[in-house]
Amino acid sequence: MSSSRFDLQYANPRMSEAERRARMQNLGFGKVLSEHMVVVPYREGEGWLQGSLKPYAPLCISPAANVLHYGQAIFEGFKAYRQKDGSIKSFRPKSNAKRFNESAARLAMPELPLDVFIEASDLLCTTDKDWVPGTLDAERLHDESYYFRPFMIGLGDFLGVKAAEEYLFLMIGGPAGSYFQGGIKPVTIWVEEEFVRASPGGTGRAKCAGNYAASLLPGKLAKQRGCDQALYLDAIHHKYLEELGGMNVFLVLQEGSRTVIATPEKTGTILEGVTRDSLITVAKELGYEVEERRISIDNLEQAHRNGDLKEAFACGTAAVISPIGTLLSRRGTWVINDNKVGEISMKLRSALLDIQYGLVPDTRKWMHSIL
Ligand SMILES: Cc1ncc(COP(=O)(O)O)c(C=O)c1O
Q1: Tens digit of pLDDT for each residue in 115-160?
Q2: Sign (positive/negative) of CA torsion 169, 91, 277, 329?
Q3: Is this model's pTM higher than 0.85 or not?
Q4: How far apart are CA 123 and CA 121, in angstroms?
Q5: Is the Cβ atom of 316 under 6 angstroms away from ligand 1?
Q6: 3-class SS at 83?
Q7: Which of the 8 DSSP states describes residue 11?
Q8: What is the DSSP annotation of 26-81?
Q9: Ligand 1 atom 3: the closest Cα is on which residue?
Q10: How far is CA 58 from CA 52, 53, 66, 215, 222, in A?
Q11: What's the pLDDT score for residue 179?
């Protein structure tokens, strides 16, 4: 790929084929990164400067850099998939580019032109084409992908609390294996009634590093209780479902004769997931009734008691859909669908994966061709 926006002369000589192949065995999530990265500096008054493709290497920044003290750090996550014909396409990268800029605005960071974001991901993935897993074996196709991690940090060499005047946009990436090693298993989720993830007016809607730092303790405590992750409630009433530390949440409810797929509405305090949005679209197209609404923990308890809570699942780029088999809280243990993978959850999961792997026509123009 030729580009005037990115200097390519620092690209690393490629890793040997044998070493790359060895690293691509037993892929998990986020464990293997390629040997390249894209870097674009920003300076106030000058704007975004020429970027470069570089070897993946440690960064050298000032000990007084904003990111180290005041946390100007945002990131994104999206994937590219090897298609049936061997080509490579990313899924809705513009949605991530837009959300990245919304996060940047909230943290008083400069917005990055959408085409720089897209060009950076195309360049990285094209350079890393051998790191994009994919065989034409249908089972593996549904498991592996290339994960992009774009991020931006505030730099500077000054300890005053103010927005930095210099920034770095970076993009790293690597192959991602199955989220569920050994098959899809329903997860157990702790309903977190004490710690909150985000409050109105805060940064919940932004994908900023601080949100994740704050979720680590509740996540750790949830694990100590035998749960996989925590499900957060709203910060004002400690009552309405919000989302998990790294995924949105959906319920399948029987309401009289209606089967409703419900998800917490956008309140400005949840991350507006690209998977969430895609599943809403796909579910509606499959003929399901979908409602974005406030869901209280009391409603949930009632629905479970009445046998109306048919399925629950978490969703996000990494897992697409992760079925929830059990909700644990101070109020008790609620087993959902006999702790089995739900039919609707799996139907939606397959429908989205089929689009991502190009097994069905891309009628919504969600796929972006890279190579
Ligand atoms: C807090 C949070 N919610 C939801 C999601 C799901 O978002 P997406 O579907 O865009 O991956 C993520 C994943 O990035 C997340 O970190």
Answers
A1: 999 999 999 999 999 999 975 455 544 579 999 999 999 999 999 9
A2: negative
A3: yes
A4: 5
A5: yes
A6: coil
A7: P
A8: T--SSS---SEEEEEEEETTTEE--EEEEE-------TT-HHHHT--EEE--EEEE
A9: 247
A10: 15, 14, 18, 26, 33
A11: 74
Domains of the chain, CATH where assigned: 6-176 (3.30.470.10), 187-356 (3.20.10.10)
Dist. CA 257 → ligand 1 center (Å): 32
Ligand 1 proximity of 208 Cβ (cutoff 6 Å): no
Compute, in angstroms, the gap from residue 63 CA to the centroid of ligand 1: 30
Q: Which residue's entry shows tokens 């809280």?
A: 329
273 lines ligand 1 (CB under 6 A): yes
**d(Cα 258, Cα 287) in Å, to the nearest integer?**
12
Query: Which one, of 220, 202, 269, 222, lies nearest residue 241 by Cα?
Result: 269
**Pair of tokens at residue 219:** 């996540």
Does residue 60 register a pLDDT over 90? Answer: yes
181 phi, psi to nearest 5 deg: -70, 125
